[in-house]
Amino acid sequence: MNRIARELLDAAARTQVADDIDLLPRISARLERRTLVQTLRARPLTAVLAGLLALALLSGVAYAVGHSLGYIPGIGLVEPGSGLRVLAEPVVVERDGITLTVTQGLASSDKTVLSFRVENIPESALARDYAEGETPPPTCTPSERLRLPDGTTLSPTGGQGGGWQLGFEFRDTFDPLPADVNEATLLVPCLLGTAPGLAPENWEVPLVFVPAPPDLTVVPVIEITPSPLPTVESGAGPAETPAPSPISIERTIDLEDGTILIGSFHSITTSDGLATSPYVWYVRITDADGNDVPYEYTSDIDLPAGDERTSAWAYKIIGKDHAWPLTLAVESMDATLPDPQVSFEFDTGPSPQPGQEWSINQDLNVGNHVLRVLTATRTPDGYGFSFQGNGAITGIGIDIRGFSPYVAPVGGGGGGGGDGSVSVGVAYAGSVPEGQLTVFIHSATITVPGPWSIQWEPEGTAGQPAPAATPGPAACVTDEVWEQARASVPASVPPDLSGRLLIFGPNADGTKYGINTYELADGTREFIAEGSWPTVSPDGTKVVFMGNDGLAVYDFASGETLTIPGTDPTDYRMVWSPDSQKIAFIRSSTDQVMTINVDGTGQRQVRDNSAVYHALVGWADSDHLLLTEPGREGVIIQSLDLSDGSTSNLFTMSSNKADTVVSQGGQWIAFTSSLGGMLGNGLYVSHLDGSQRRLVAALNGRALYFPVWSPDNRWLILGLPDPNDPIDETAQAFVELNTCRVIPLPDLGGEVYSWGRAQGGP
Amino acid sequence: MPGVTLDDDEAIRRMKGGDIGGLEILVRRYQVRAVRAAFLVTQDEPLAEDVVQDAFLHLHQRIHHFDDRRPLEPYLMRSVINGALNAMRRERKSTSLDADPGPLESRLQTASVETEVEIAEQAREVLHALSQLPPRQRAVIAQRYYLELSEQEMAQALEAPPGTIKWLLHAARLRLRELLGSGRSTP
């Protein structure tokens, strides 16, 4: 990368942004030291889990030991039995069109749990919609409370939640209600994401609890001891005795649509010593046939905070018809070497100045790894240190001693750069120590290579024949298919294709950059205009693109380019109406969704200040635009009736990627959505109402950019990672939807943006 | 415990556990770089600080949606750059793409940065030139040359096809070269 460019930009920014800015006080004030998500601390559950864990580690056999806890979907783990009270009924409060619904509530002897949802927050109330010139208002982070009849209030002790811009949903855990208290009031001072005064505030929702009905569904929680099989020792170094698996499963919950597994990751003894605070980035779950099993994080189970030796997890396995047993596999985990007992010294000399650097170049032995201290640098409020290791150490914690009186640093931190380099700093609130200093490494984060795995199967399934393999969603394009196609299918344009591709790239002699046409019939290529984002009209006669002065239209018949009057250079994401007479686009300067006739007449704003939330997708027909809106379950595809402005929801996709594209005739839509659980997203096609959904591509979570429909809807051109440069380059491929043929595109001198029908063609 | 010397992973883990200390670590670590990146887009230091505050608060609110398998910094900086662009839209500070655009590298690669005076002078020139660019072009310059993101990362951040990123970069470089006075681009 261009070092000088970076240095100059940094210097340019430095002229206005000082090294010592401190945003923390303002951020802290806005947060009011209130976190939305807190875990249970020192709750009885922790003690229960600790006891179970001790038992688990002493054992080695998976068996059920009892059913002591219960699980209520949406509420979490409860202690069943007498005294359970539930919300008498869901409570809905509506103010100014915004609804707050307390959907669930439960009071038990150890806690109170409330789930509430807020919907229909108007875009105008969101903090980001303040008026021009106005000082940005603070954004609300609700600090809800539960008020009891005697006036005392309870704050959440745990919970989870999240929002989707126009609404949010929280599940809060509070301390238990007194046994004789059956009424309380939920207080919500303000709504998440809104600016003060723009939405109703100080919500009060009266709640009434009644004894739980006898038929309350409480799913038994099956407590098991984990089975450390197979035993696999860490690859970090030889161990004299096999180490137990650091994965344990302690509880399972059998649901109609899946199973929740609750377990822990444990500290592990490596050749470097005991590695604590285990952290696992990714768990792969496979069935007996080696197929990936979808799973997701649970949203209603408060995990114990854990300690240095364990970290808890809870996953919901999606589906029940799996080939048992399932295997939970971990390739590696990050863990901490608590006290490597390593130090080094350096002398700052008198009056060290910010920016001053000292070369140290000293090798340290941290565990069994050599970490070389390269430099120390005086920062505005402390010191920074750079290290180089072999990649095994990904972070360290330091403290500076050797000066008197000792002052603890107030901040700092550091981590690895992925290449064995580690940078770490310490900051001080007051004077920065100087002179002969000793730097102690008090902890080191290491990546402990596995693999480890543990198997689990539901009770009663052992020895039974595996169910017939459930056919997973078969994708036309997978990593393997794409790799195979690149190796065995010559890059070419299939001879049976017709029409014209619009290619964004340089002209023939490389003096201009813009829009080129490529005739599929004979392979001729022609540069037609400078600009970007070319989109061909459904009748194939024109191209609209972003020009320097606004949107421009190139007419194939006349060869002329005309800027559309009334458009401006911030207009983008153009989509043609099916009759090729109108264009819809987003005006980024004002976040409006606009439509305009191709001759510039009839310009109309169809959504105001909403493009931030409503991506423009395309046209369903000449009277209906397709937009997206964030929703609770994902992104909703909406149809906007241009005649009266009303909208109707078509279907919900689970991804918010802006690569949703409607076919030229408006019959089909290509979009990305979740493959289920942690399997990432896939590219799907379906009818506009979501029917006949079909998975086209699943590339292990990697992005797929803006698919291009063929005029006859038979083909898609997909942007796929270029194996030669998967980070920076995209390759494209033809994918025939009916046959799943995958054909790499030859080098056409740029990227295909659009595919028009042949001149005079159907 | 001496100091708060934790890496990003641990900070995120703490945040997911409800410990605001995790956010403090990340703020201290990334605030300067983030504000400078935002400033390169907004050209307005107080606005840049507001943008970065919002980005950290957003991170805090959405930490449970953050995919732990991905590095934090690109995620955070994506939020910062998009926040800066949104702020520019709100503030109506957009400038038009009204001239022949023109590459940062040639000017910058030939630039001498041997003395602090020269650096300061050239920094002022760069700053002035940047101010003449539309926000989206400033954003790609900041992403590519200051944050050193790949074009794919930029495409994801700006939700635009990679080709559009190439074009925005191309146009921004040409425009900067013209503004920095190292010769007009060839038509």
Q: Per DSSP, what share of the residues of chain B sits in E-state strands of 2 or more residues?
A: under 5%
The rounded distance between the terminal residues' Cα atoms of chain B is: 63 Å
Roughly what is the average pLDDT of chain B, rounded to an integer? 67
Structural class of chain B: mainly alpha
| Overall number of strands of chain A | 55
The largest sheet of chain B is:
none
Could you characterize the architecture of this molecule?
The complex is a heterodimer of chains A (762) and B (187). Chain A has 762 residues and is mainly beta. In chain A, 6% of the residues lie in helices and 45% in strands. In chain A, strands 4, 5, 6, 7, 8, 9, 10, 11, 12 and 13 form a 10-stranded antiparallel sheet that branches. The longest helix of chain A is centred in the first third of the chain and has 15 residues, at 44-58. Chain B has 187 residues and is mainly α. Chain B is built from 9 helices and no strands. Chain B has helices spanning 8-16, 21-42, 45-61, 72-91, 104-110, 116-131, 135-146, 151-158, 162-179. In chain B, helix 2 packs antiparallel against helix 3, helix 5 (104-110) crosses helix 9 and helix 8 crosses helix 9 (162-179). At the A-B interface, helix 1, helix 2, strand 10, strand 27 and strand 28 of A face helix 1, helix 2, helix 3, helix 4 and helix 5 of B.
List the helices and strands and how they pair.
The complex is a heterodimer of chains A (762) and B (187).
Chain A (H helix, E strand, L loop, with lengths): L2 H12 L9 H8 L12 H15 L5 E3 L3 E3 L3 E3 L6 E3 L3 E5 L2 E10 L4 E8 L25 E3 L5 E2 L3 E6 L4 E7 L8 E6 L14 E9 L7 E6 L22 E9 L2 E9 L1 E3 L2 E7 L4 E3 L8 E3 L12 E9 L7 E12 L4 E6 L9 E10 L2 E11 L2 E7 L4 E9 L9 E6 L4 E7 L8 E21 L20 E2 H10 L11 E7 L6 E7 L5 E6 L1 E5 L5 E5 L4 E5 L5 E3 L7 E6 L5 E6 L4 E6 L6 E4 L8 E6 L2 E8 L2 E8 L5 E7 L7 E2 L5 E7 L6 E7 L6 E5 L6 E5 L5 E7 L8 E7 L5 E3 L6 E6 L6
Parallel strand pairs in A: 31-50
Antiparallel strand pairs in A: 1-14, 2-3, 2-14, 4-6, 4-13, 5-6, 6-7, 7-11, 8-9, 8-12, 10-11, 12-13, 14-15, 15-16, 16-21, 17-18, 18-22, 19-22, 20-21, 22-30, 23-30, 24-25, 25-26, 26-29, 27-30, 28-29, 32-33, 32-55, 33-34, 35-36, 36-37, 37-38, 39-40, 40-41, 41-42, 43-44, 44-45, 45-46, 47-48, 48-49, ...
Chain B lengths: L7 H9 L4 H22 L2 H17 L10 H20 L12 H7 L5 H16 L3 H12 L4 H8 L3 H18 L8
Helix pairs in contact in B: 1-2, 2-3, 2-4, 2-7, 3-4, 4-7, 4-8, 5-9, 7-9, 8-9
